[in-house]
Structures are given as C-alpha cells and as structure tokens.
From TrEMBL:
Native organism taxonomy: Eukaryota, Metazoa, Chordata, Craniata, Vertebrata
Name of the molecule in the record: E3 ubiquitin-protein ligase
Cellular component GO terms, alphabetical: cytoplasm
GO biological process, one term: Notch signaling pathway
Catalytic EC class: transferase
RING-type domain residues: 105-166
Annotated source species: Zoarces viviparus (Viviparous eelpout)
Length: 316
C-alpha cells in the first residue's frame, strides 16, 4: 500500500499520529487502507489545534483602547428600582382601550373582552375601564392584570418588554452579579482581521449569594470559568461593539444567574444571550475567528436587549 501526498488531494485529518492519546496511531494506517481500497489517494494531516489565548504579552505591550479614557468597569449593588408600584410602571406604558378586540390575550390565552386568566398573588382588582391596555409604541393589547403579573415575575427594574414583539419600554436591566470588566489592546491580530490589533476583554465575577432579583434569593451561586477572556478586532466597528458592551455591562445584561445549558448546573453564572468570542486563534468551537458576521450579530443581540448605537454615543 502506498500513502500518497498531493497538494490537490482532499486531506483526511487524522488525530494521534504520534500516539499521544487513547486512540491508537494505527488509525492512520487503517484510514490509508480504506482509502486505497477505494482507489483514492490519501493525504494524512493533523487536525487544526484549538487556540484559546494569544501568545504571551508583556505589560508594556498592553495599551488602552483608542478613544477610551478608561480600561476597567465594575458593577456592585443592584440598581435602584424605578416606579412606585408595579401597577404604576405598567400604566406608564399603556393606552386605555374602550372596546377590546375579539381576540385572546397572548399572556393568559383568555379573551380580552373577559377577565384576566391570571389568578396568582401580587395583582389587585381593576375596573372594567382599565382591564385591557394597549402598549403605546407597538400597539399590542393585553389584560392589565396579566402585564402586572409578568412585570412582577421579571427583574422589576422599571422597564417592560412586549411579550409578542419584544419591544422594550424604559431601560431594561438584568440580574448580573457584581464583578469587574477589563479591556485593552494587545499587539496580535485575530484570524480574518490581519490589518488591526485585537481588543481583549476580561470578565471576572466571583461566586456569592443570590439577591432578591435572582431565581433563588439567599442561596449561593457558583461562577465557573472566570476570569473569562474574550476578543474583538481593534477596528472602528470593534470599538463600537465594545462601547455597547460597556452599556450592557452597566445595565447588568452580559451575564445572568440561572442553569447552564452546557453542564446543566443550576444557580450558576451564565452568558445572557450576547455572544462573545472566547477562542483567539482558531474557530473549532464556533466561538472564534474568522467569523465575518460576528460584529453585526452582536449589534443585533444588543439591540434585542434595548441597547442601540445611540447609547454607545453617550459612552465615553
């Protein structure tokens, strides 16, 4: 049998050619036999390696991000709640509806012309004139009591999000625990961005006790994998994304406390629907570069959290 190497032959990535892992190096020979039996030339290669971190960087090579007068941001206590009562908050965003349409409330799935299907605590009686409201910006209509119940089950931060179209009323904030966000430029380029250096973001959140805004108040939460290193190209668009990530950090929207979709662990710090690139020099996990659509995707995810480019203009 002859194992041939041609530049125009599709490669067959075979691990363990040096026998350094549990799979026997004879796998390479078996692959060659199978390919040769089909009269196909074989070019055995090693698979690409996972590169999570850049080469070592000295402190003198770490520079501030151009246009930023700071390199660190902390979050501490939960932001103050806005609005005197949940009813006050909801009313602020509603218009009265004199004649409810003949359709169901998409929260309780009961007709809008009848009473709310919500029977839980924390919601008082309302007059018939106030039983249905229309959200002022998007126009979707719900039972007033259903909206109050939905607000009570959320972060109770003075904002409201339409459950149908996700339009955000007010300033949405999250339940991210206290921590630290650092950011600076390192003298290495990301794959797909050869013409610029890289922005490195370092998130650090310690374990602690859950507060009233978390799923299980008073219970400890874990914080696995911190500090977490993330990367952006040091380009004009990369810096725009960084500014909006700073807004998201201040609003406690980067992380949350919940159940990990990776490990299944509950009461732990998890990402909160804003994707980050944690793989510096490869893209084997899908969390690396090159990825031409990454920055646009992050801007869209931030927009879904109520953070727009106008918010970035206010970030200095």
């Amino acid at each position: 049998m002859t194992v041939t190497s041609f530049s125009n032959v599709p490669t067959v990535p075979v691990k363990n050619l040096n026998g350094s892992s549990p799979v026997h190096p004879a796998l390479a020979g078996i692959t060659g036999i199978l390919m040769s039996a089909a009269a196909l030339p074989v070019c055995l290669t090693r698979p690409p390696k996972l590169v999570l971190h850049p080469p070592p960087v000295s402190k003198s090579d770490v520079k501030p991000v151009p246009g930023f007068g700071h390199c660190c941001r902390k979050t501490t206590k939960k932001q103050a709640r806005k609005g005197k009562t949940p009813e006050d908050v909801v009313k602020k965003y509603l218009q009265k509806v004199k004649s409810p349409p003949e359709e169901d409330c998409t929260i309780c799935m009961e007709p809008l012309g009848g009473p709310s299907g919500y029977k839980g605590p924390g919601v008082g009686p309302v007059s018939r004139a106030e039983s249905v409201g229309r959200l002022a910006q998007c126009g979707h209509q719900y039972h007033f009591q259903c909206l109050v119940a939905m607000y009570n089950n959320g972060n109770k931060d003075g904002s409201l999000q339409c459950p149908t179209c996700k339009t955000i009323y007010g300033v949405k904030t999250g339940n991210q625990p206290a921590g630290k966000m650092e950011y600076h430029v390192i003298p290495h380029s990301l794959p797909g961005h050869p013409d610029c250096k890289s922005i490195r973001i370092i998130y650090n959140i310690p374990p602690g006790l859950q507060g009233p805004e978390h799923p299980n108040a008073g219970k400890p939460f874990t914080a696995r994998g911190f500090p977490r290193h993330c990367y952006l190209p040091d380009s004009e668009r990369g810096r725009k994304v960084l500014r909006l990530l700073l807004v998201a950090w201040d609003r406690r929207l980067i992380f949350s406390v919940g159940t990990s979709s990776t490990t299944g662990e509950s009461d732990t710090v998890i990402w909160n629907e804003v994707h980050h690139k944690t793989e510096f020099g490869s893209n084997l996990t899908g969390h690396g570069f090159p990825d031409p659509g990454h920055l646009d995707n992050v801007l869209e995810e931030l927009r879904a959290q109520g953070i727009t480019e106008e918010d970035g203009l206010m970030e200095k």
